[in-house]
Amino acid sequence: MTLNPMEKKEISMNVFYALLTALNDIMGQDGKNSVLRYAKLDKYIHTHTPDEISMDEKIDYNIFHSLINSMFVLLGFGTSAILYEAGRKWLIYLSPFGLSLDVMIKKLENWIGGKWDLIKKDDLEIVDVYECPICYGLKSMSGKPICHIIGGALSKIKESETGEKYDVIEDKCIALGDKCCEFRIVKKYKLDVKEYLKE
Ligand SMILES: [Zn+2]
Question: What is the full DSSP assignment across 84-100?
């Protein structure tokens, strides 16, 4: 049975504000505001991130989905690297602590939904995301995977856990018709993500 992420209805509010803060860092205030405006989320334009967001506070999944969709439309085409970088920044605001990959993917599952599995094969780590809350309802226009935000976030998690540099490559994507989004975690010297993200 496939669960529709929309049916989850709510995600953690901290995730939403962390993404807004990351967008602000990368695109500046005007850039972030255009993304919000396109998403018809104008009411968040002049809203400051609350100082303390309790982990129990929730926000409607549709709000998060509109923001993600707007990022894809305004940033996504030809700028996968920006989405990847947004994912890395997002993670910094979500969790400043060096938590392990398996702990963090369970947190992400809790915060934004989907079903996240960590698979370890020899020295390779793979994360499978079923019912992916990022590309839900979207189709890739480029014939390539589109969930670079998750890729960026996973690379940052792995780096803060180990102190070493990692890249993350999305090999499968629900937006391409695959049954899950699959992310391969690779030590940086073995592969350059910039090559992969090139359009
Ligand atoms: Zn995907």
Answer: HHHHHHHHHHH--S---
